[in-house]
């Protein structure tokens, strides 16, 4: 299906691997020019090379910490190096950041909360502040925030993520409705358990904590997913690309859960 976004310009955060890369890959295949951001330059440059091989799209790689003002400034400036672009002039914004650590809320000091809020709430808001008015003035824009299933099914061990991501979700609920009439949509993607490097690391840590063999621990995790498998990153990227498409123009202020049926609720 032609998504109608060929030639658009996108900023994709945490895009060197995992779900961020999958989103960038799906957008590149749709003909979107990209600025991709991640902290570690070698895997980021490797990702940029793969994306350039997918078609005639421009890909700018910015090795920076997007949670800092300096990192955001570098990412926004890179838009000027895309075809027809200018500083901060993106048609599509995909925000993404690794989740904060699990634990007991009694052990988290103010600094831990500030780090979680900076990464998972305040940075996406700052990027929206920098890009949204331009989208509105041009009459078209797509913003997708990668959040977490914790927004709908909070984990008692993921309080930092529960709080920060729920704060972003509440903010987006109001903002998306303010700008819907300008041709700009804002939605959140809520990933369940996807087969990524981060998952494999978490599975090993979880098995050790539970004093279980890794294979038995993985089987237990899979048993809780009606689809009986972990998600593929490409499936997540395809959902992101669709929300950025011309066809998704009437979808906004939504939280799309992609978890193989693991969430047990109706709504």
From TrEMBL:
Pfam families: adh_short_C2. CDD domains: BKR_like_SDR_like. It comes from the Bacteria. Belongs to the short-chain dehydrogenases/reductases (SDR) family. This is 3-oxoacyl-ACP reductase.
């Amino acid at each position: 299906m032609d998504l109608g976004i060929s030639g658009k310009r996108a900023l994709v955060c945490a895009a060197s691997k995992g779900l961020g890369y999958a989103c960038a890959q799906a957008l590149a295949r749709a003909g979107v020019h990209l600025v991709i951001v991640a902290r570690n330059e070698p895997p980021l440059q490797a990702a940029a090379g793969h994306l350039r091989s997918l078609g005639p799209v421009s890909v700018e790689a910015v090795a920076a910490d997007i949670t800092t003002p300096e990192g955001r400034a570098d990412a926004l400036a890179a838009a000027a190096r895309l075809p027809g672009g200018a500083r901060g002039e993106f048609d599509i914004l995909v925000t993404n950041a690794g989740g904060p650590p699990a634990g007991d809320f009694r052990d988290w000091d103010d600094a831990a909360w500030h780090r979680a809020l900076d990464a998972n709430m305040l940075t996406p808001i700052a990027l929206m502040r920098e890009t949204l008015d331009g989208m509105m003035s041009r009459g078209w824009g797509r913003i997708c925030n990668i959040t977490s299933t914790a927004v709908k099914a909070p984990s008692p061990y993921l309080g930092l993520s529960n709080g920060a991501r729920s704060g972003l979700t509440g903010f987006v609920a109001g903002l998306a409705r303010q700008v819907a009439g300008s041709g700009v949509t804002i939605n959140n993607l809520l990933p369940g358990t996807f087969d990524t490097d981060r998952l494999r690391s978490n599975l090993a840590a979880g098995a050790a904590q539970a004093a279980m063999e890794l294979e038995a621990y993985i089987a237990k995790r899979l048993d809780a997913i009606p689809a009986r498998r972990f998600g593929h990153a490409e499936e997540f990227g395809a959902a992101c690309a669709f929300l950025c498409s011309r066809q998704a123009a009437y979808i906004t202020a939504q939280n799309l859960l992609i978890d193989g049926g693991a969430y047990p609720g109706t709504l």
